[in-house]
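Page 37, continued from 36.
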């Protein structure tokens, strides 16, 4: 019976067109290959898990699923972020979450109010949250830590005290310290945490540094003396070849800070003026301050600058090309001012200002410390004990 059935099947197949038999055999090969690939994939995963078991942590998977939220943030779901702090605590936004540094304790809160990262940092008082990693350190210490949203990822140890740490968007970072025989030594690391460039100065002290978003340029603002007169010097280096992109000296001026804008420009700030230079080092802009500088904020749209004006503050807004687009005064000292696509906002101790061609003021609870613009345009106001969401139209 079986022999007859086999002959019948062979006869049936012989009646098929030649191409059909070929494709039937090809389908069988692909069917077997599918299972072979699955088996190889399972073996690869097992070997990887065994070989890298020391590196696999729950934080890796938390970070992977960070942006896969079942209940994304909205006004209706926001209930406030609560913590215990003081007036000296520091705040920043890191990848959409609120970073709080208080009494050496670093905590990262998501917008639902949950602490997703908490670490005791041994007295850290400074940080940089502008890059891929969050850098936390204490000035004068010899250790700095890098974090992602859920865990520390790398610890930097130096032989001399650390002055400043800055990060870039690709995972690189720079550490300002010193060495024997030099006043300043800045080491730039790539995303693999390997040193790729060192800048040294034997006669100047670096006050701060910054990296361009792609990590290709290092900006240094340093202070020195010449003939008994103090000066500030901006130096921009190409870390790939060591060439000097820009070098500017400001005689008699105290350095305050610098940053790279998204368009590649570098902005230097002293107590007397702010200046902008292109990615090729040519000067694009210079604006002397009419009063004492109170705060300056760099954002996607440009710069927002606050200077003292009588008993209040003068707020000037510049776009990405450093053209002044708005200017107004408020009758009280401003803690911070930011500009979004909706408006320019200013924060005082117990007032919130909104400027859209006309200035409006709203009373808020006293004791405000900081504020940040969220992705939907609303403003998060920070107090020593918690936050408040300020809805904007």
């Amino acid at each position: 019976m079986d022999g007859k059935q086999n002959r019948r099947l062979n006869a049936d197949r012989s009646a098929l067109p030649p191409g059909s038999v070929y494709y039937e055999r090809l389908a069988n090969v692909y069917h077997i290959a599918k299972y072979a690939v699955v088996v190889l994939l399972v073996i690869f995963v097992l070997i990887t898990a065994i070989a890298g078991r020391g590196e696999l942590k729950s934080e890796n998977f938390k970070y992977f699923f960070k942006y896969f939220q079942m209940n994304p943030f909205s006004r209706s779901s926001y209930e406030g972020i609560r913590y215990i702090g003081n007036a000296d605590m520091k705040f920043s936004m890191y990848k959409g979450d609120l970073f709080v540094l208080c009494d050496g304790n670093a905590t990262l809160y998501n917008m639902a109010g949950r602490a997703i990262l908490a670490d005791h940092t041994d007295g850290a008082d400074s940080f940089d949250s502008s890059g891929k990693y969050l850098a936390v350190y204490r000035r004068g210490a010899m250790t700095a830590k890098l974090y992602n949203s859920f865990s520390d990822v790398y610890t930097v140890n130096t032989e001399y005290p650390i002055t400043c740490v800055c990060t870039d968007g690709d995972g690189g970072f720079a550490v300002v310290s010193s060495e024997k025989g030099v006043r300043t030594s800045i080491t730039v690391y790539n995303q693999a945490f390997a040193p790729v460039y060192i800048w040294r100065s034997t006669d100047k002290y670096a006050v701060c540094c910054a990296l361009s978003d792609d990590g290709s340029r290092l900006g240094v603002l340093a202070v020195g003396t010449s003939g008994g007169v103090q000066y500030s010097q901006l130096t921009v280096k190409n870390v790939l070849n060591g060439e000097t992109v820009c070098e500017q000296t400001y005689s008699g001026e105290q350095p305050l800070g610098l940053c790279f804008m998204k368009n590649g420009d570098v902005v230097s700030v002293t107590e007397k003026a702010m200046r902008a230079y292109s990615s090729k080092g040519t000067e694009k802009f210079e604006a002397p301050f009419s009063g004492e500088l109170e705060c300056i904020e760099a954002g996607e749209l440009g710069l927002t600058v606050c200077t003292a004006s009588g008993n209040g503050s003068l707020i000037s807004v510049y776009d990405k090309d450093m053209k002044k687009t708005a200017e107004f005064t408020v009758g009280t000292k401003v803690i911070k001012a930011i500009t979004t696509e909706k408006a320019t906002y200013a924060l005082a101790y117990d007032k919130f200002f909104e400027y859209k061609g006309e200035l409006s003021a709203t009373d808020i609870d006293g004791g405000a410390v900081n504020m940040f613009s969220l992705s939907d345009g609303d403003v998060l106001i920070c107090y020593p004990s918690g936050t408040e969401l300020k809805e904007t139209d």
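The chain has a mean pLDDT of 88. Flag for discussion at group meeting. The longest strand covers residues 217-226.
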